[in-house]
Structures are given as structure tokens and as C-alpha cells.
Amino acid sequence: MTPAVAGQPGASEVERVFRDAYGQAVATLARVFGDITLAEDAVSDAFLVATDRWPNDGTPPNPAGWIVTTARNRAIDSLRRSARGRELQQQIGVGEPTPADKPTEDGPVTDDQLRLIFTCCHPALRTEHQVALTLRLLGGLSVDEVARSFLVTEQTMAKRLVRAKYKIKAANIPYRVPGDAELPERLRSVLSVVYLIFNTGLDDPERAALRGDALRLARSLAELMPDEPEVAGLLGLMLLSESRVPARTVEGSLVLLRDQDRAKWDHTLIAEGHAIVRACLRRNQPGPFQLQAAIQAVHCDAGTFEDTDWPQIVALYDHLYRLMPTPVVALNRAIAVGEVEGPQAALEALDAIAADLDNYHLLHAARGTTLRQLGQIAAAQAAYERATGLATSAPDRRFLAEQINELTAIGANRGQTTHPPRV
Amino acid sequence: MGQYLLSTYRVEGDVPGAPGSPEEMQAFMGRVMALEAEMDESGTFAFGGALHGSDAATVVNSSDGNAVMTDGPFAESKEHIAGFYIINADDLDAALAWAGKVAEATQHPIEVRPFRATGRVADHMPDA
């Protein structure tokens, strides 16, 4: 949410604090009051007060603390106005409002954000609700921004968020970091949500801002859970994917790794990603995100496509497939196998999983590329056409259209050579 | 502490996971009884039972003070509630853990639904 006072001195300061502190403040207030909606409303009120006062009074020394204290006071005020609120206030034992300029014990507690993200990504909530809650409550996106990232109206998204928060409250989804026994599975759900947000931003140029939101979430998770190698793995994977974004599309059309201008890659992000992957290797507790990060690290390490250490990539995919035996992992492995053993081996590996991924455009795109390498032009064209029918993102569709045009041209040339030219 | 309804559904003409042989039936009963004993020991079990088929149901509606009856279940659906437990649980995670045990013992999907209020309406009225 961007407070609507752009141009005034201090407005950008409020905006910056908003991005940094929104999630922390909501998380802390949700712990104190045990109610996410009350926390959200109070934090929004506090930011409105900030946009009103900071331009004149100056930004307080501890802006995030100021927001939490002001929000807490607002929440206490609003609780006092209702009988139910007074009852709740007694139960949770929050007393008198604290003057905003006095120090308070309610400063942001990092555990609060962890609690909140585990609540938002609880497996009893459907994935789209997990994503929407995470973007809204932890990412600090406005309802309208979340709505745009889902390509739905603000009204639809507002209803969806209300439904999700209703379930959290009515079913009493606990507000805590899961214990050791449940942690691995619950953490997977949190990390998948963050990765899904990132990939949505990667697939659709219109929603590119989501990549930044996902990276912010991953960075704060990595700070909050420094001992979880998969959290580091996810951050490394996303940084390395992000590093190649400048070369990934040209004029709105997807460019394959093989054809990317590697000079356009962001080498600062690559260095950061590589450092994370090396730290994961030293830790030696591999998991799916760390292995995917390692695969990206090998790609980013190669000066040219031909220099890529493909046997190493196949070995990493083998390891990944043992941990995560899904058809999509098998698909990526098949493509890597093609680079080591040639297109015939790739085609056999792709055909073995074709039935499982018949509705996945990347299977047909990979078959198209492999068939083309084998000189089976008509079959390649049919595969690309099938992929076009299934692809949803504009860059993918443009790329596939270009492939079909090229193949049509090749087919036409062949046609001319097989039939004697008319005179 | 809250209460949750754990319910299982039967699809008309199809009883997935139903014990087929007497031995299977015995094993099924053994699993359910062991689970119910565990629920009792931990103070989890509040109430529960199995229902007769939806063909035995009657819907009663009130029209101008007259009871109007309709043969059959209320929901126009092929799935009907077959049995349920009402359990005491601290939060959804605790309720889901019990639901997992019930699903394993019965080999049926279990719906978990929180009670909004339990007991008599009068119990929830503000003090006069």
C-alpha cells in the first residue's frame, strides 16, 4: 500500500518504512491481540497517522517501533469501544496505551514474523489463499496489488482474504512456529509459497514485481531461520534465476539458455548465489531447493553454453530425482541427458514421461527441440504446436511461434529440394 | 480448548475402504476401538457415532405451523454423512492430528470442522 501523499516531504520515508515494517508490525500485533484482522486494521491506521505527522514532525528515531506502538494503542482504543473488546482485552492482558515517543517492550520480535508466515502457509488453507495472505500480511502489498498479482479484481481478492482470515480464526489455526517433528513438512509449504510467488513473477512480465516481493520474503526467512539449509537453498535458487532475467527475454520473446547473452547476466547476484550454494555444500544436508540452486550455480558458472558441465548437472538431477521423483524433475533431467548423450537419448527419456505431462507445454516444447535436432521436422512442428496450445505466458507463446515459423521455412525449403523446380 | 466435528461421508452405492471379509471387519473394529480408547484417555472424546443410511432420513419443514415431511436427506448430493466424532482439541493442529488417526483407522477421508459454539444457546447468551 502506498500512502497517497506522494510529493510531500517524508512521504517516501513512510513508504520505505511501510515496506520494511508492515509485516513485522502486523505479526507483532497479531501475537499481542491474537487476531490478524484487528492487527491489520491497527497497523494501517498507524501508517495513516504517520503519513499525517511525519512530514511535519520528522521521522521518529525508531520508525518501526513507532508504528508498532501507535498501532497497539489504536487497537486498544478500538477494543475499548466494544463490550466484546473489553472482555478480550482482559483475557489477553494488554493494558494502557503507551505514548508513541516512549520506549516500549512491543518492538518487533523476529519470531512474530515466523509465526505469522507459518499461519499464512498452513496446509489447511488452499495454496492460493496461502499466497494471497503471505503477500498481503508479510509482503505488505495492498489488497489491490495482491489482486493484480492474481489477475482478479480488488473486490474478489478482498473477499478471498476475508474468507482465509475467517478460517484462521474460526478453526483456530495456531499462531506458532511448528515443533521439530512437524517443521520440515510445514517449512516446505512456506518455501513453496515463496517460490510460487517468484515463479509467477518470472513467467509473466506484467507481474514482474512479484519476484522482488519473493526475494524480500526469502531474504527475511534466511535471516530468521539461519539454521535451515533449505531456506538458504531457496534464496540461492531465486538469486541465481534472477541473475539471468535480463537475458531471458528479448523483445518480449523467451530466449533459451543456449542463446542467452551471458554478458547481460547480473554477476553481483551470481556471486551472492554462488556463496550460498558453497555454504550449502559445506553443510552437506542436501534438499530439493539446495540441489536446484546447485544446478543453477553450474549453469551460471559456465562462460558459454558449450562450457556447461552437463555431466555434473545430470548427476545433480539424479540426486534431485531421488528426493523428489516427479515428472517435472524427470523432464529437466531428460533435457540435461540430451546434452551429454545426444538427442536420441533425450527423446527416449522424454517419451517415457510424456503420458504424465501431456498437458504441460514444456514437455512438448522440449520434444519439439529434440525432434528438430534429430531432423524430424514435421514431428517437431506438431510438438511445438501442441506446446503453443498449452502455453499461458506471452514470452513462451512468442518463442514457440518463432520456432514454428522457422520449421515452416525449413519444411518449405526441403519441399523445394525434393520436388524438381518447375520451369 | 475448542470442539471440532470430525465427520466421514459415504458415497451412494459405493463404500470405499469398507471391510469386505469378517476378518477385515474385525481388524477394522479393533483399530477403531483402540483409537476411541486413546481418545477417552486423553479427554478428547466428547461424543460420536455412526449413522444409518441416508435412505432412512426424513426432512421436516414448518409451513404455517404445520410440519411438512419429505422422504430422504436434505442435501441433494450423492455424499452423505456416515458417522462422526465430536472432539475436544486445543487448536486446529491438534484436531487435524486426531483426524489423521481417524482416517488411518477407518480408511476414510475425514472432514474437520470447528464448532462455533458448543452446548445450549442459553450458555452463550450475555449475562442479564
Would you mind describing this structure in some detail?
The complex is a heterodimer of chains A (423) and B (128). Chain A has helices spanning 11-33, 36-57, 63-80, 83-92, 110-120, 127-138, 143-149, 154-170, 183-203, 209-224, 229-243, 245-248, 267-283, 288-301, 310-323, 327-341, 343-353, 361-373, 377-390, 394-418; strands at 249-250, 253-254. Chain A has 423 residues and is mainly alpha-helical. Chain B has 128 residues and is α+β, with helices and mostly antiparallel strands. Chain B has a single domain (6-117), classed as Dimeric alpha+beta barrel (Alpha-Beta Plaits, 2-Layer Sandwich). Helix content of chain B is 27%, strand content 34%. Chain B has two helices and six strands. Chain B has helices at 22-41, 92-106; strands at residues 2-11, 45-50, 58-63, 66-71, 79-89, 110-114. In chain B, the strands form two sheets. Chain B has a four-stranded antiparallel beta sheet with strand order 2-5-1-6, with helices on one face. In chain B, a hairpin with a 2-residue loop joins strand 3 (58-63) and strand 4. In chain B, helix 1 packs antiparallel against helix 2 (92-106). Chain B is flat. The relative contact order of chain B is 0.29. The model of chain B has no long low-confidence stretch (mean pLDDT 90). The interface between A and B is small, with 10 and 12 residues.
Q: Which percent range fits the helix content of chain A?
A: over 70%
Strand order of the largest sheet of chain B: 2-5-1-6
Query: Main beta sheet of chain A, described?
Result: 2 strands, antiparallel
Decide which structural class fits the backbone of chain A.
mainly alpha
Radius of gyration of chain A: 26 Å
Summing up helix and strand content along with how strands pair, one would put the structural category of chain B as: alpha+beta
What's the pLDDT, averaged over the residues of chain A?
Answer: 87
The largest sheet of chain B, given as strand count, sense and whether it forms a barrel, is:
4 strands, antiparallel
String of helices and strands of chain B: EHEEEEHE
Query: How many distinct helices of chain A?
Result: 20
Q: What is the 3D shape of chain A?
A: elongated
Q: If classified by CATH, what would the architecture of chain B be? A: 2-Layer Sandwich
Oligomer: heterodimer
How far apart are the first and last residues' alpha carbons of chain A, in Å?
Answer: 70 Å
Largest interface: A-B, 10 and 12 residues
Report how far the terminal alpha carbons of chain B are from each other: 25 Å
The number of domains of chain B: 1
Spatial order of the strands in the main sheet of chain A?
1-2
Radius of gyration of chain B: 17 Å
**Spatial shape of chain B:** flat
